[in-house]
Amino acid sequence: MPQNPIQACEIFDVWGIDFMGPFPSSYGNKYILVAVDYVSKWVEAQALPTNDARVVTKFLKKLFARFGTPKALISDRGTHFCNAQMEKLLKKYGVNHRLATPYHPQTSGQVEVSNRGIKRILERTCGVHRKDWSEKLDDALWAFRTAYKTPIGTTPFRLVYGKSCYLPVELEHKSYWAIRAVNMDMVKVGEERLLQLNELQELREEAYESSRRYKEKTAKTHDQKLKVKKKFKYGDRVLLYNSRLKLFPGKLRSRWTGPYTVTKVFSYGTVEIQGKDGNPFKVNGHRLKEYIEGAVNEGYVEDLSLPKPPE
After folding, report:
1. Which of 107, 109, 196, 233 is most buried, judging by how many CB atoms fall within 10 Å of its CB?
2. Would you state the pLDDT for residue 83?
3. Residue 62: what pLDDT?
4. CATH 3.30.420.10 fits 14-223, yes or no
């Protein structure tokens, strides 16, 4: 299906959230809970011993206290994100909970990209046995926040704080900013601060436009690679690809199940289908294909065992 990028309006308006792990136990921690802002690419993460609803709600309360209440939160449909505690918390703060389409991690693509980046940094900084990854997490976040991001044309740190992050190497070499800090004129400082605020607003507007152009470019490239653009309409009969169907070695069995009937088509690539039980559910259109009448006997599955090759 064509790519439909999510474009947020303001910094900290939309957050994506996801779990990484389980990893080898590090001081009792096995998981990393990651949250990423869709505009600035700013990442927050915490090492945790479990991945349940209690730790998620506690993490979100701290996130909202630091960055304000967002307009939307994007997550997958895991039980740690879809439960009564989460529903109560998000309703209290007035946050719209947007859920990814089942078996379609591209909806949470921004979080997935951040996860890979943090994981790569941890792999390079941890010891041989990688038991100290939880202690290296803060360093990994620092590196990620101060790294240049092509979609926004700057670093997340500069986009959030309006200034570059001073690194340890700069402190060692007595940077100019450290020298001028002792010579402060309050009038000039006030004028300079107003100028910095104006520059920060311009920087964020430029980052928004840069992100929009980058997403349009990647979406265009993605759509051009599609061999056949699938188009469905109400009443079509389709087959659904079941990626979780476990197939035994030596068996020929299709992962396509159905047929199902299309009941609704959404503009962003999601399709609502209905099976024999009459219960409709949503899937991403790329997991569907046209059902050719009479090609398969409904309800009949034949297993063919392949003989082992001679030794």
Report:
1. 107
2. 94
3. 96
4. yes
Write out the DSSP string of 169-186: HHHHTT-HHHHHTTS--H
Mutual angle of helices 109-125 and 133-145, in 10-degree steps = 120
**pLDDT at residue 67 above 80?**
yes
Dig out the tokens for 96 from the structure. Answer: 């719209």
The residue-averaged pLDDT of 184-211 equals: 65
Does residue 59 carry a pLDDT above 90?
yes
Can you give the length of the chain in residues?
Answer: 311
Nearest to 16 by CA among 100, 93, 79, 85: 100
104 in Cβ contact with 284 (< 8 Å) = yes
Query: Residues 184-190: what's their mean pLDDT?
Result: 60
Q: How many CB atoms lie within 10 A of CB 119?
A: 16
Q: Do domains 14-223 and 237-305 have the same CATH topology?
A: no
- Contact, 224 vs 234, CB < 8 A? no
d(CA 138, CA 210): 28
Rounded distance between C-alpha atoms, residue 78 and residue 52, angstroms: 10
pLDDT in tens, 98-157: 988 765 555 555 677 777 888 888 888 776 667 889 998 998 899 889 888 877 778 889
Given this model, what pLDDT does residue 306 score?
Answer: 60
Query: Residue-wise over 195-229: b if at least 16 C-beta within 10 A, else e?
Result: eeeeebeebbeebbebbeebbeeeeeeeeeeeeee
Q: pTM for the complete prediction? A: 0.61
State the architecture of 237-305 in CATH terms.
Answer: Roll (2.30)
With contact defined as beta carbons under 8 Å apart, do 75 and 95 qualify? no
Alpha helix stretches (DSSP H) within the chain: 53-67, 84-93, 109-125, 133-145, 156-161, 168-172, 176-180, 186-225
